[in-house]
UniProtKB/TrEMBL annotation:
<keyword id="KW-0368">Histidine biosynthesis</keyword>
<keyword id="KW-0028">Amino-acid biosynthesis</keyword>
<dbReference type="Pfam" id="PF02811">
    <property type="entry name" value="PHP"/>
</dbReference>
<protein>
    <recommendedName>
        <fullName>Histidinol-phosphatase</fullName>
        <ecNumber>3.1.3.15</ecNumber>
    </recommendedName>
</protein>
<dbReference type="GO" id="GO:0000105">
    <property type="term" value="P:L-histidine biosynthetic process"/>
</dbReference>
<keyword id="KW-0378">Hydrolase</keyword>
<dbReference type="InterPro" id="IPR004013">
    <property type="entry name" value="PHP_dom"/>
</dbReference>
<dbReference type="InterPro" id="IPR010140">
    <property type="entry name" value="Histidinol_P_phosphatase_HisJ"/>
</dbReference>
<comment type="similarity">
    <text>Belongs to the PHP hydrolase family. HisK subfamily.</text>
</comment>
<comment type="pathway">
    <text>Amino-acid biosynthesis; L-histidine biosynthesis; L-histidine from 5-phospho-alpha-D-ribose 1-diphosphate: step 8/9.</text>
</comment>
<dbReference type="GO" id="GO:0005737">
    <property type="term" value="C:cytoplasm"/>
</dbReference>
<feature type="domain" description="PHP">
    <location>
        <begin position="5"/>
        <end position="220"/>
    </location>
</feature>
<dbReference type="GO" id="GO:0004401">
    <property type="term" value="F:histidinol-phosphatase activity"/>
</dbReference>
<dbReference type="InterPro" id="IPR016195">
    <property type="entry name" value="Pol/histidinol_Pase-like"/>
</dbReference>
Length: 316
């Protein structure tokens, strides 16, 4: 029973992703997905949080469209959830991006919508600057955090802690995204510097485990040139020691990226001794009744069963 818990479309993430949401869902069905979490990016509310491609022709116009686009996404997701209910179990969510603590009320408000099943707690910034957009902005973030990668990592995990404590997300997206553009993405964190970064990693994992959240094994790291998915091996090993659960995601941004590197990601989990991954099932599907959220049931899927459900063909 193959699935993803993290996906995007060009329809609701223009300039950053490709393809219409319905076409993405149809392709996911064709390659064997039985569950698909839709997690478009949440709207931002400050001009300073726009990405470079959003600054023209008008930053104000780019910002103004984000809220209505989110509402349009939810309406379309509900429609597709019902239309394809006999072929795929669609979960409706969003990527709750912690740019700073001021975004906590908005994330809470968005997650309260009756149609929302869950959100991904994720961090794409350090000291308010994007860390995964390009190397120039990564360098800018490093300088804002104190000028070294060690200080930058510490800021990243401190901000992640704020997110974990304030929002208690069911799933944390790409836990160690900070390493994507690092000068040494495979760095051994346990012996780095004075050990402050590693202590913060362990602290954050413990907080996540305490409230029963999951880590996603996110294969987009492999697509972007890293040797291991998110999270890297050292972090994954500590999570396993804590008894933590993994879900599984392609973090796709269009049809071409659905299930990309899934075989490698599953091999990675098996090399860690992981035998199952977790997803959700809505107790009432596909509709909510009377504006009441559907109950989410945690569902275990063995890696063997997951592999058996994939029909990758040329997509891998």
């Amino acid at each position: 029973m193959a699935f993803t818990m993290h996906s995007h479309s060009g329809q609701f993430c223009p300039g950053h992703a490709k393809d219409q949401l319905e076409d993405i869902i149809k392709h996911a069905i064709a390659i064997g997905y039985k569950t698909m979490g839709l997690t478009e990016h949440m709207p931002r509310t400050e001009l300073s949080d726009l990405y470079p491609e959003e600054l023209t022709p008008s930053p104000e116009a780019s910002l103004a469209v984000l809220g209505p686009r989110h509402e349009a996404y939810l309406a379309e997701a509900v429609r597709l959830q019902a239309k394809y209910a006999d072929q795929i179990h669609i979960l409706i969510g969003f990527e709750g991006e912690w740019l700073r603590s001021a975004y906590a009320p908005l994330i809470a408000e968005l997650s309260a919508a009756p149609c929302i099943d869950y959100f991904l707690g994720s961090i794409h910034h350090a000291c308010g600057v994007p860390i995964d957009f390009d190397r120039a902005m990564y360098a800018q973030a490093r300088e804002a955090c104190g000028g070294t990668e060690e200080k930058m990592y510490e800021h990243y995990y401190d901000e992640q802690l704020q997110m974990l404590q304030a929002l208690k997300p069911r799933i944390v997206g790409h836990f160690d995204l900070i390493r994507l553009m690092s000068e040494d993405p495979g760095r051994e964190l346990r012996g780095w510097g004075e050990g402050g970064v590693w202590k913060k990693v362990l602290r954050n994992l413990a907080v996540l485990e305490e409230h029963g959240g999951w880590l996603e094994c996110n294969t987009s790291a492999l697509r972007k040139g890293l040797e291991e998915p998110y999270p890297g091996r050292a972090i994954a090993e500590e999570w396993i020691k804590m008894g933590g659960r993994f879900t599984f995601s392609d973090d796709s941004h269009g049809i071409a990226q659905i299930a990309t590197n899934y075989e490698r990601g599953l091999d990675y989990l098996e090399s860690l001794g992981v035998k199952e991954v977790w997803t959700f099932e809505r107790a009432t599907h596909p509709d909510t009744e009377g504006g009441v959220k559907a109950e989410l049931i945690e569902k275990s899927v063995s890696i063997t069963e997951f592999r058996g459900g994939l029909r990758l063909g040329k997509t891998e």
